[in-house]
Amino acid sequence: MAPIAFETVAECPFTRARAGLLHTPHGAIETPVFMPVGTQATVKGLTQRDLAEELGVRILLANTYHLYLRPGHELIRHMGGLHRFMSWPNAILTDSGGFQVFSLSGLRKITADGVVFQSHLNGDLHTFTPESTVDVQLAFGSDILMVLDECPEYPVSHEYARESMHRTLSWARRADEHYRLKTAESPARHALFPIAQGSMFPDLRRECAAALVDLDAGGYAIGGLSVGEPRPLSMEMVEATEPILPRNRPRYAMGVGMPAELPEYVARGIDMMDCVLPSRNARNGYLFTSRGRIIIKHARYKDDPRPLDENCRCYTCTRYSRAYLRHLFLSGEILYAVLATRHNLRRYLDIMGEIRHAIISFSFPEYLRCVRSASTDAE
Amino acid sequence: MAPIAFETVAECPFTRARAGLLHTPHGAIETPVFMPVGTQATVKGLTQRDLAEELGVRILLANTYHLYLRPGHELIRHMGGLHRFMSWPNAILTDSGGFQVFSLSGLRKITADGVVFQSHLNGDLHTFTPESTVDVQLAFGSDILMVLDECPEYPVSHEYARESMHRTLSWARRADEHYRLKTAESPARHALFPIAQGSMFPDLRRECAAALVDLDAGGYAIGGLSVGEPRPLSMEMVEATEPILPRNRPRYAMGVGMPAELPEYVARGIDMMDCVLPSRNARNGYLFTSRGRIIIKHARYKDDPRPLDENCRCYTCTRYSRAYLRHLFLSGEILYAVLATRHNLRRYLDIMGEIRHAIISFSFPEYLRCVRSASTDAE
């Protein structure tokens, strides 16, 4: 079996949804899966024990851009790799850093070779090439590596999108070649996923996906979504891309989405997602519950003795009231972030669990209908 | 048995140290005890489960000044009291707010009646009287309440210290009377501790203590220490005060101290201590270990794979390296505060456990000698 192998467990007869198992050197992962984001080798506010034991997280995402700048990939390699450095027993996917280079850093210059960018920490200049980001991620020892891609902003012209997509393609081929060369030296314990781009143009999305399939990668990502476009357009891009990707490989929609969108992506054949929303929104006072959102600073929660979500079994909901959480939020207390993040992540993981259960029990279309009618009712 | 009763379990034959049990409506507490500080109804960075189950904390301190201003004692009363509001099953001691009024608020004016002060949150004017702070703490439902005192800065003249001490005494009498009146209506489930003051003048300390003993309180505190005076002077003040306090009551040294000072206070007859040092220093990157301090930002820890303290059994030390903690600290990550606070508190609680064990096994003088020689060697 390949180090990263995907196995389909059940398929929905009416949608593109499927339930699977993604086997990695750090354990098997039930899909569809939501991957919490651990940007700087930590999911903000949670211990690794909270994540692995309490929330049951089997894979998380870390950011190559951030960890390359600080503490540096050589230090992480020296410390025995990212799993050991951050004391994380389960799987890790690292992005290529492309998205951060295009969204976070100040000055940046795209060349055929790669991208020169300025660190957001101290202004130093650095270069990422398709080869170098593979090397950085190999130093991390990530289970799943991502290729360097260009993530164009929204909107861009068809002309620019085409040029950018071809650059992403050429980078993917170079990254793949470099990766095969590097891992030929030692038994491969990883997989490298290329990223389909093409902005909001279905023809470019199709062209990109078709060309990437030639790489016979362990999995494929769809990037460039949630960059400001209307949501129906994101879904259209997935619908254009996904049927071209091999059915026996996991598909990863990068950086999505809101709770009600998760089953929509799954219905379109997506197996993996990641997003900062549950953790970032938690810290900003925006909480997801099975009955809609709660903005915790609102005065109505001042003396509300109820848990955030009566249907939730997370530590926060079994032990603390909305009134106490509001107090912690208004006081700027660390415990607020700790408890709120724990709840929001639990909510996302519960949704994924419900989705998987629905697929396996052949009730996914009904589940999807319920989510759609609930989100039409809400707000 | 009184709601708050103190029982001596063992006494050191050579020092004033003793091991005891402090019985409260929320459980028995082994003394000497260090009480973590939960200023705003949370010990910064730790969940109540971390505190109670992992660290074994049996009593914590919360701040009347902060909770009176936000969320307010009436809200807390309405929510069923502080234990329920913050979901804390064990004992709570609240201070009177005096120390914060004198150190945190901007404008403040002492009158015979009490003290008028400005909120550090929004500048609003408020008044604390000996009676009102008892009422606020009764609204909290604290197990141990403290009387309003004046905590003079250091240094002050003998004349000012005398005047201030007499004000504190008169406030203590008023608070005591008010407390007895209020709790006469319902079965008392609390104790009110008066606070001995007198700045750095042994004669005033003795006069104050002797007068407070007449109140026949459930316990006594020594306040006004660690306000900038040299440490030998703090010890001298405890030595002047403590022999006057009844031996069958717990004695609480407020706001102390550094790790090596803890057994010094115990040797002088102190049973209870609290301090923000372990938690605040943790957040500032200053960590206490059984082999001295660690300033985590130092470059020497950059690739140090060792735990903070090889002798420590806390979650942080059993799972994370100095290198990872340093990375989290430099990245300003919440997890740093979470892990560092957990370790520093564990260190303080371990020291108290060692002290208690030494007293019970009649080896406390030897233990004290070891601590003294180690702290002379260190730094």
Report what the structure shows:
The structure is a homodimer of 379-residue chains. The model of chain A has no long low-confidence stretch (mean pLDDT 95). Chain A is 42% helix and 17% strand. Chain A starts with a strand and ends with a helix. Chain A has 15 helices and 17 strands. The radius of gyration of chain A is 20 Å and the shape is globular. Chain A is an alpha/beta fold and 379 residues long. Chains A and B meet through helix 13 and helix 14 of A and helix 13 and helix 14 of B.
Order of adjacent strands in the largest pleated sheet of chain A: 4-15-14-13-12
End-to-end Cα distance of chain A, whole Å, is 47 Å
Name the biggest interface.
A-B, 37 and 38 residues
Amount of helix of chain A:
40-55%
Total number of helices of chain A: 15
Return the average pLDDT of chain A rounded to an integer. 95
Q: What is the subunit organization of this protein?
A: homodimer
Q: Characterize the main sheet of chain A.
A: 5 strands, parallel
- What is the strand content of chain A? 15-25%
Q: Quick one: overall form of chain A?
A: globular
Low-confidence stretches of chain A: none
Number of strands of chain A: 17
Radius of gyration of chain A: 20 Å
The computed structural class of chain A is alpha/beta
